[in-house]
Design goal:
Elements: E1 2-7, H1 11-22, E2 27-30, E3 44-48, H2 49-57, E4 67-69, E5 71-76, E6 82-86, H3 87-90, E7 96-100, H4 101-114, E8 118-120, E9 124-130, E10 135-141, E11 144-155, E12 166-182, E13 189-195, E14 198-205, E15 208-216, H5 217-225, H6 228-238, E16 245-248, E17 252-261, E18 265-266, E19 269-271, E20 277-278, H7 286-303, H8 311-340, H9 344-359, H10 361-373
Parallel strand pairs: 1-2, 1-11, 2-8, 5-13, 11-19
Antiparallel strand pairs: 3-7, 4-7, 5-6, 9-10, 10-11, 12-15, 12-16, 12-17, 13-14, 14-15, 17-20, 18-19
Helix pairs in contact: 1-4, 1-7, 7-8
Bound molecules: flavin-adenine dinucleotide.
Amino acid sequence: MLPVAIVGAGPVGLAFALSMQRAGIDCAVLDARAVGSPHNDPRILALSHGSRQILERLGVWSDIDATPIATIHVSQKNFLGRTLIHARDAGVPALGYVVEAATVCAALERACTASGVHIRRGTRATGSLAQAEYALLYCTMTAGSEEIRAQLIAWAEGATRSEDAIVCRDYAQQAIVATVLTRAPLEAIAYERFTTRGPVALLPLGDRYALVWSVPDDEAAGLLALDEHDFIARLNSVFSGRLALTTVSARTAFPLGLRYRKSPVGKRAVWLGNAAQTLHPVAGQGFNLALRDVSQLARLLQDHPQDCAEAVLLARYAAARRLDRDGTIGFTDGLIRLFGVRGEWATHARGAGLLALDLLPAARRFVAQRMIFGARGGPWRVNPLQ
Ligand SMILES: Cc1cc2nc3c(=O)[nH]c(=O)nc-3n(C[C@H](O)[C@H](O)[C@H](O)COP(=O)(O)OP(=O)(O)OC[C@H]3O[C@@H](n4cnc5c(N)ncnc54)[C@H](O)[C@@H]3O)c2cc1C
């Protein structure tokens, strides 16, 4: 019987598979995508320093092209308050690294294949049944169906299923992603600009910026339909013309919401990545949180390889991750709600908050540490596994 079956060969499933392999635990990964289909995820990810350390330990970091972020510039349109968070505030060489999701997937898959992890493409999981001694995973392929028997099923299928015990909030927003060129020097600065219509992020990526522009549902189609000249003009106006943006690549839209399972574990099952929690990309936390989950789960399983799905072990994992998971979900959701409040008083309060943050090094350090390391980067610095 297989110790672990992983559903989904996205970045999270692959990172978990590699962690399992490094921990000496056998696993198989299955993915619905057809054999030979390329990694073409257009998302650009901001990875934290903590994520870099995890990917280094997995031996894939050197295979990923990453642009460091030295400074994050947070501002609010039509208001003077702004704050600058520098890498030195957090005592790290860079606040984060900007990478293409497709590149991360490709690097993880190469490492998995080189280490002998079995990845089965063209295999779709359709359901499961947990028994006392094992779990059955039901799969379909073009040539029929199969049951896979494993101690533990790790669901990393990239979305929460509607029948699961999930909490949902529809932000009624979409994120338009693309890359843009600028005439101005990039200087390793990432911009996060809050507008009354939604946050806009520009992340340095090589000689370009990666754009994540969150807009209300009813504006998304209009922005996607604009020709390049008008789109760039609209984007430049969001940044009051300061960034001299010139051209934009093809644009893709992602619907945004918060969906998460109340518990990331069940009987002989664990949910990872977007299957456990799907977050708004405003603070760039989804994959970073998932990597911390994966890393901690792998360490726990490594110490108890007899039965990877022992109930007490999974409960320990859920308890160990609660603070970071709840904190990251709350932090991300809180930002959207805080900056979504309309009205003059709210705008002034937010501007004053940003200004205060700019004047208070300790508060800046707190925000920087939280974005870099999650909850364990806070002043309490707990190690929940101990
Ligand atoms: C616009 C945007 C920007 C973002 N920016 C950031 C950022 O800056 N930093 C950050 O940390 N995070 C960011 N995120 C979040 C990040 O993209 C996700 O957390 C991450 O990609 C989730 O990966 P995953 O492996 O869980 O899911 P996916 O990448 O969706 O992978 C799921 C895999 O499962 C397979 N699959 C699905 N169903 C089945 C099935 N039934 N059987 C078998 N296989 C199946 C799919 O084919 C796919 O390969 C962003 C998200 C968005 C939308």
